[in-house]
Please model this.
Amino acid sequence: MPAVADFRGYAFDPARVDSCGKYLGRKVYAQLYAIENLVRVVVHSVLTAQISPNWWTVAVDPDTQKEIAKLKARYLKTPWHGSPGAHELYYTFLSDLNPIITANAHLFRPLIPDIDTWIGRIEQIRVPRNIVGHMNWPTATDRARIDVFYSDFQHLVKKLAAVPTLKLVIP
Model:
């Protein structure tokens, strides 16, 4: 089967648009979904272990807490639609998660000694994540970056799952 290419580089054909959507949904979006949710699980698990299950009010900047509270309230106004989840962490984006990790890097470092490298890598996938999240086509370099980060982060999660003092828990 020939490689799927960005439909915008060709004459209009609804089948091309559909192929692009299927490819991005099955491959790239699925990886980004896993990355973003695994980052949430790691953040929640580490901060729960290092602070307490109520880490949110201690570890998150008050301005971010206010913004997330507003976003959560907007979702609660339309209960007939799905909501991101019960925990505030589900209302965050990668652009919110990285500052939470950075501010609490000293709590991550005992479990993830190279946390600063991970913070930089998360930052590197924010733009490609936004491109895909806004239904646009990532470059080959961005797709490769997502592939590598996805694989590497899966490996990190497996290592963390083996740490006896850390229980990976869903927020």
Observations:
- DSSP finds seven helices and no strands in the chain.
- The helical segments are 14-50, 56-59, 62-76, 94-103, 105-108, 115-133, 140-161.
